[in-house]
Amino acid sequence: MPQRNHPRRRIRDRIAQRDRTANRALCSKHELRNLLLFIDDDLRETATAIGGIEQFLVLAQELLEKENVTPGELRQLAADGGVEGQLDYLSETLNSLRRRIGLVADKL
């Protein structure tokens, strides 16, 4: 497992600031350039989905810690289908990312 340089930074921030030219072995191969662009998109979209799930978790924690939380607030959170959409999206983007990383491995 690679060592994390900035463990406290959010993955979305690290991906957004990622130096796409840092790996010369990958960037120097012309046949990988388009695939690497798609991987960058997959990374950003996967991180965005994780961010949506994270927002749900933060809200859940805040409500559970709120002393005067109401049953209605908890029911509303429990019924929120947005997090399920984010989970589906996460699965889709993560599978795409894994597939494309495999294609890069095949072309090296």
Question: Briefly, what is this?
Answer:
With 108 residues, the chain is an all-alpha fold.
Tags for this model:
108 residues; single chain; mainly alpha; elongated
Element layout with pairings:
Blueprint: H1 11-16, H2 24-27, H3 33-65, H4 71-79, H5 82-107
Helix pairs in contact: 3-5
Description:
By secondary structure, the chain is mostly helical. Helices cover 72% and strands 0% of the residues. It contains 5 helices and no strands. Helix 3 (33-65) runs antiparallel to helix 5.
Tally of alpha and pi helices: 5
Number of DSSP-assigned strands? 0
Give the end-to-end Cα distance, rounded to a whole number of Å.
20 Å
What is the N-to-C order of secondary-structure elements (H for helix, E for strand)?
Answer: HHHHH
Rg (CA only):
18 Å
The average pLDDT score comes to: 84
Write down the overall geometry: elongated
Counting helices, strands and paired strands, the structural category is: mainly alpha
**What share of residues are in beta strands?**
under 5%
Report the biggest beta sheet as strand number plus sense, adding barrel if it closes.
none
Stretches where pLDDT is under 50 for at least 5 consecutive residues are none
Amount of helix:
over 70%
